[in-house]
Write a structure and sequence with these properties.
Elements lengths: L1 E2 L9 E2 L9 E2 L5 E2 L5 E4 L7 E4 L3 E2 L7 E4 L3 E3 L4 E10 L2 E2 L7 E3 L8 E10 L4 E5 L3 E2 L5 E6 L10 E4 L7 E6 L4 E5 L3 E4 L5 E9 L14 E6 L21 E2 L62 E6 L6 H14 L5 E4 L8 H12 L3 E3 L2
Parallel strand pairs: 1-2, 2-3, 22-23, 24-25, 25-26
Antiparallel strand pairs: 4-5, 5-14, 6-9, 7-8, 8-12, 10-11, 10-13, 13-14, 13-15, 16-21, 16-22, 17-20, 18-19, 18-21
């Protein structure tokens, strides 16, 4: 019998609170063996010793299956069985007690591991953790609130596209599946509310451009395949005033050469993630009027070739550290003869930022900051 809950009696195995009559538990009754990261549970004789740790295999994409080996163990009396427990980061996943595990959306962005327990004929058990593997989701994932102001009905959301290069499939959190889309798509939900939308395939660019259902977009949860194959993101999210970005992946911005107006007037964004801007030739008005933008990452422009940051950070709320990050990173890029404008809020660059600003001016830049 196996029990990953509150423990077990008479040599049962549990992940819970302790052991009775040589029970086996992941709780308080254990000691560490000489085998490294191995926990031993039980009181009879020597525990099994792990000599080769378990190994997870499989492609770590959401929806795929991971498989853990048992690893290799030795025991004086012989190993008679194994138990498995999967973890999402440091968190035990309830019910995930098989050698295989199907990755879910909740796993995306976390390192997955499996602990394997070996039990010998004496009823003594030990466990060891596998290697870790990062779970990722390749889908573009975002949430919408259909009854916010927009051009579609209060139970609808229109995905806006621009130009060619689209061939994408849609899934929604209410169970809809729409395939083979090559342009803009209006999704009708059973009632007004908040829904998640999942896009796979080829989706180069949104084109909200301060119109349409821009205020219905709530959260970019995962960039996934977004921007793959695209070179232009002009006005993609312009005017998405209710949108925040919780995505922890970096998307596919590495070949984008235009970011004009991309996040302009996205007034709900407070923290901006690290994105690969290395190929861009313009950030004209890119974050203008992001009135609550406070945190901007370091090193964002270290490898950039761009000299056009005109009005890029005007009417923002950047912290001193963020202003410093921008100035230092553009200085690090080595680009000459550019323009950078930052304003808004009450924060000033520190001495570090002022040094970078002076360096840029010496390289022919026109720079204005708070």
């Amino acid at each position: 019998m196996s029990d990953w809950g509150q423990g077990a009696k008479n040599n049962d195995i549990g992940w819970g609170q302790g052991a009775v009559n040589n029970d086996i538990s992941w709780g308080a009754s254990h000691k560490v063996s000489w085998a490294g990261d191995t926990e031993i549970v039980g009181t009879d004789g020597d525990a099994p010793v792990n000599t080769i740790a378990p190994v997870i295999s499989g492609t770590a994409l959401v929806g795929n299956t991971l498989t853990s080996t048992t690893g290799t163990w030795t025991s004086d009396t012989g190993v008679i069985g194994y138990l498995y427990q999967w973890y999402r980061g440091a968190t035990l996943i309830s019910g995930a007690t098989n050698s295989t595990y199907v990755l879910t959306l909740s796993d995306a962005g976390f390192n997955m591991t499996c602990r394997v327990a070996a039990t010998d004929t004496d009823g003594t058990s030990a466990y060891v953790s596998s290697n870790s593997i990062l779970a990722i989701d390749t889908r573009l994932i975002f949430s919408v609130k259909t009854d916010n102001a927009g051009t579609s009905a209060s139970n609808q959301f229109t995905i806006p596209t621009l130009g060619t290069g689209y061939l994408y499939d849609i899934e929604t959190s209410d169970g809809q599946s729409i395939t083979g889309r090559t342009g803009s798509t209006t999704i009708t939900f059973p009632s007004a509310g908040t829904y998640d939308i999942f896009i796979s395939g080829s989706f180069p660019q949104f084109s909200f451009n301060n119109v349409g259902d821009r205020m219905k977009l709530l959260n970019l949860k995962n960039f996934g395949i977004y921007a793959l194959g695209s070179t232009n993101q002009d006005s993609a999210f312009y005017g998405c005033s209710n949108m925040v970005i919780s995505a922890t992946d970096t998307g596919h911005f590495e070949n984008i050469d235009r970011f004009f107006n991309i996040f302009r007037a996205c007034t709900s964004i407070t923290t901006f993630p690290f994105i690969n801007f290395s190929k861009s030739v313009t950030f004209l008005r890119a974050w203008q009027d992001c009135i609550n933008l406070t945190n901007f990452p370091a090193n964002a422009f270290d490898t950039a070739i761009c000299s056009v940051y005109t009005l890029a950070f005007t009417n923002t709320k950047l912290s001193t550290q963020s202003i410093d990050n921008i100035l230092v990173s553009i200085d690090t890029s080595g680009v000459t003869n550019g323009t950078l404008n930052q304003s808004g809020g009450s924060n000033l660059p520190s001495a570090t930022g002022l040094t970078a600003k002076a360096n840029l001016i010496s390289k022919g830049w026109t720079v204005t900051t708070n």
